[in-house]
């Protein structure tokens, strides 16, 4: 009885004296949140801003529901200039590219970012020109406004789709975490 | 025209001194100079001495490229002595630098 | 009796504490050791294992130009560790490396700046960065630490990729190399482990117009060629920074030296994506992950690369 009592005191003292708590004072059990993913959305609880996401939802880096329509978007149809006209396609491109920029996945090709393409196309339309020379373009080729609009739209949506897909299977490439050889 | 300092490394081990020297010079051959629209100028003579004794000497021409690097060895108990390296170029510029042998 | 209680308590506390601290880098250690195993297995005998590791290389190349039997420490010199032709040119230029005068300038910069001397009394620190700052809850890279110091002393921030920053860093790196220190990155909290995981995810996620991940080239692709370049391994990638790149330093030696941030940004651009800013969270966490992977290897900066 006495022994049990002293054991209890020791355990209590140890836990309270232990400097191994996280700075906000929570106990050793907080260690578990680094490794758990309660809502199984691929983002660990410690970085998950939306820890109760419905299972099966595709989420972005912060664990929150991504505009679910990204993977369902019909990029070919949305970026078709003949069908929607240059202005609408540019608007679609801007909309998705802004999300891509927020997520840090904006494309940059041959020295021109997607925003660069959008800006150049808008300038050309405002000036009434049909040939576009995006700023910083390394190829120094002539592009038509329609081509630039379509490219910007493809890049905007493509970046988000790649991000969503990449989130699902990046671990398969890590030796020690899924890569088999 | 201001000349740049040559980088000299000289170390002695078991009676043999190894010297590695990089002379800083544009070394423009006649063809290169024409393309760059500058005047041709390149090192034509290099000499290295220890205590007044010549340990390395070479006449060179357009074939050496920018910042030529030379490496050579010579015998003798030379630790602590100074290695003196001089180069002269086509226009008559001369540069001498010294470094103690380690 | 009381003494006994105190002793046992102390022992209990110590063991729980150490077990705790050890656990935070458990996954990181697992990744690092698995990476070493992978690299060593790959270069054990390239010709024999060609179908597993080198499906696109020719017999001639595997037999004559790729080294075999490489071990952990060998990978510190990047693709020169296994490319025989590359190693030959590398050895030649190391006889009189162009970065030596840059190290001397770095030393002058340090000696003239009192603030830097106060922030960094010990200059052999290149192997300890990046580290996770528990108070600020973020990764601090050497670049951001130097800039914090400069700004605190009242001057304008230095450019994080070129100019004075890499010159100073080459002095630190050279001092660390001479002191024969090793890369020693620590993960001592759950937040640090999470930052490491985010860096790891960034590294292994496919991105950009070309849909490449960093791993495509530098883990799975190590040893293979992209046009005329042999791809270097992740192992040992950060040990030799700041790096003198011959491509950048063609005309002026001082333009050739650059920081980790510059090189990583260049790589992300090659993938077809707009790179993250040099002092952004993503960049720093990426560097944290990459540096941890080279833990235990000799610091050998600055160094030369093509």
Describe the protein in words.
The complex is a heterotrimer of chains A (181), B (102) and C (306). Mean pLDDT of chain A is 77; it is low at 18-31. The termini of chain A are far apart. Chain A has a two-stranded antiparallel ribbon with strand order 1-2. A two-stranded antiparallel ribbon of chain A has the order 3-4. Chain A is 48% helix and 4% strand. The longest helix of chain A is centred in the last third of the chain and has 25 residues, at 145-169. Chain A is mainly alpha-helical and 181 residues long. Chain B has 102 residues and is mainly beta. Chain B has a single domain (7-100), classed as Immunoglobulins (Immunoglobulin-like, Sandwich), CATH 2.60.40.10. Chain B is built from 1 helix and 7 strands, in the order E-E-H-E-E-E-E-E. Chain B has one helix spanning 30-36, and strands at residues 7-13, 16-22, 43-50, 53-59, 69-75, 82-89, 94-100. In chain B, the strands form 2 sheets. A 4-stranded antiparallel β-sheet of chain B has the order 4-3-6-7, with no helix packed on it. In chain B, strands 1-2-5 form a 3-stranded antiparallel β-sheet, with no helix packed on it. Chain B is elongated, with a radius of gyration of 15 Å. In chain C, helix 10 packs across helix 14 (281-293). The model of chain C has no long low-confidence stretch (mean pLDDT 88). Chain C contains 14 helices and 7 strands. The longest helix of chain C has 23 residues, at 2-24. Chain C is globular. In chain C, the strands form 3 sheets. In chain C, strands 6-5-7 form a 3-stranded mixed β-sheet. In chain C, strands 1-2 form a two-stranded antiparallel sheet. Chain C has helices at residues 2-24, 26-42, 50-53, 59-64, 84-94, 100-112, 114-119, 142-152, 164-178, 190-204, 214-218, 253-256, 260-270, 281-293; strands spanning 131-133, 138-140, 225-226, 229-230, 243-245, 257-258, 303-305. At the A-C interface, helix 1, strand 1 and helix 6 of A face helix 1, helix 2 and helix 10 of C.
């Amino acid at each position: 009885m006495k022994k049990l009592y002293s054991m209890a005191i020791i355990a209590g003292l140890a836990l309270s004296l232990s400097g191994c708590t996280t700075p906000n004072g929570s106990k050793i059990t907080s260690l578990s949140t680094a490794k758990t993913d309660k809502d199984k959305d691929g983002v660990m609880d410690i970085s998950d801003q939306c820890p109760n996401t419905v299972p099966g939802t595709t989420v972005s880096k912060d664990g929150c529901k991504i505009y679910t329509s990204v993977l369902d978007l019909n990029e070919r149809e949305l970026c078709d200039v003949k069908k929607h006209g240059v202005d609408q396609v540019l608007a679609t491109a801007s909309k998705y590219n802004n999300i891509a920029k927020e997520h840090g996945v904006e494309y940059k090709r041959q020295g021109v970012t997607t925003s660069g393409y959008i800006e150049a196309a808008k300038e050309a339309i405002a000036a009434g020109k049909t040939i576009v020379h995006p700023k910083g373009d390394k190829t120094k080729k002539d592009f038509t406004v329609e081509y630039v609009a379509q490219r910007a739209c493809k890049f905007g949506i493509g970046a988000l789709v790649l991000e969503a897909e990449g989130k699902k299977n990046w671990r398969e490439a890590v030796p020690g975490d899924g890569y088999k050889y | 025209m201001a000349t740049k300092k040559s980088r000299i490394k000289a170390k002695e081990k078991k009676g043999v001194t190894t010297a590695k020297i990089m002379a800083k010079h544009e070394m423009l051959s006649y063809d290169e100079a024409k393309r760059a629209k500058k005047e041709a100028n390149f090192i034509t003579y290099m000499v290295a001495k220890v205590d007044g004794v010549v340990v390395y000497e070479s006449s060179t021409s357009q074939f050496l490229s920018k910042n030529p690097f030379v490496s050579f060895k010579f015998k003798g108990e030379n630790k602590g002595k100074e290695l003196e390296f001089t180069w002269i170029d086509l226009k008559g510029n001369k540069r001498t630098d010294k470094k103690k042998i380690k | 009796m009381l003494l006994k209680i105190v002793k046992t308590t102390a022992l209990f506390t110590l063991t729980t504490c150490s077990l705790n601290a050890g656990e935070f880098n458990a996954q990181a250690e697992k990744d690092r050791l698995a990476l070493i195993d992978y690299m060593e297995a790959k270069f054990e005998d390239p010709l024999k294992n060609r179908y597993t590791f080198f499906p696109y290389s020719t017999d001639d190349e595997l037999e004559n130009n790729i080294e075999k039997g490489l071990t952990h420490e060998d990978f510190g010199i990047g693709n020169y560790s296994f490319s025989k032709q590359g190693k030959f040119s590398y050895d030649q230029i190391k006889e009189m490396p162009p970065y030596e005068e840059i190290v001397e300038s770095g030393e002058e910069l340090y000696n003239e700046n009192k603030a830097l001397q106060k922030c960094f009394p010990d200059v052999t620190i290149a192997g300890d960065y990046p580290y996770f700052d528990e108070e600020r809850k973020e990764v601090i890279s050497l670049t951001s630490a130097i800039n914090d110091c400069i700004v605190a002393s009242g001057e304008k921030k230095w450019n994080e990729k070129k100019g004075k920053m890499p010159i100073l860093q080459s002095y630190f790196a050279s001092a660390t190399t001479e002191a024969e220190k090793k890369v020693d990155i620590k993960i001592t909290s759950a937040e640090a482990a999470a930052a490491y995981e985010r860096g790891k995810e960034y590294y292994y996620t496919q991105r950009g117009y070309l849909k490449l991940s960093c791993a495509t080239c530098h883990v799975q692709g190590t040893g293979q060629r992209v046009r005329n370049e042999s791809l270097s391994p992740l192992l040992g990638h950060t040990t030799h920074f700041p790096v003198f790149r011959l491509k950048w330093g063609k005309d002026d030696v001082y333009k050739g030296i650059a920081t980790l941030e510059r090189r990583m940004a260049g790589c992300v651009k090659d993938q077809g994506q707009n790179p993250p800013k040099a002092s952004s969270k993503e960049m720093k966490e990426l560097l944290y992950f990459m540096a941890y992977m080279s833990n235990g290897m000799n610091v050998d900066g600055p160094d030369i690369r093509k």
